[in-house]
Specification:
This is Alkylphosphonate utilization protein. InterPro entries: YjdM, YjdM_C, YjdM_N. Belongs to the YjdM family. This protein is mainly beta. It has 2 domains: about 40 residues, N-terminal domain of TfIIb; about 55 residues, SH3 type barrels, CATH 2.30.30.40. About 5% of the residues lie in helices and about 35% in strands. It has 1 helix and 13 strands; from the N terminus they run βββαββββββββββ. A 3-stranded antiparallel sheet has the order 1-2-3, with no helix packed on it. The chain has a 3-stranded antiparallel sheet with strand order 9-6-13, with no helix packed on it. The chain has a 3-stranded antiparallel sheet with strand order 10-11-12, with no helix packed on it.
Length: about 110
Amino acid sequence: MPTTPPPCPVCALENTYQDGELYICPDCAHEWPVAAPAEDAEAEKIVKDAVGNVLVDGDTVTLIKDLKVKGSSLVIKQGTKIKNIRLVSGDHDVDCKVDGTPMMLKSQYLKKA
């Protein structure tokens, strides 16, 4: 049994229809996704450190092994404390500053302090 589409969130009129993955209001031309709340829940990724602790923005972490900085002769030593991390999406999921230099690191080489 087909369900009736919800009223338009912009103009509140009930003359809406579904077209693929979008609801469309022909009165005000507003379009919105059919499953927006489910997509937002999936977008939140839980980032864990090497030991399995959940990391959040603003945490302080330490390195568990020496890391060579790509494109440089610099090596970040094991045990280096990194304060105020920021979580981002992608392969390198931690954005931070090490000795004033902005870097992106993988959470698998970090341990929550």
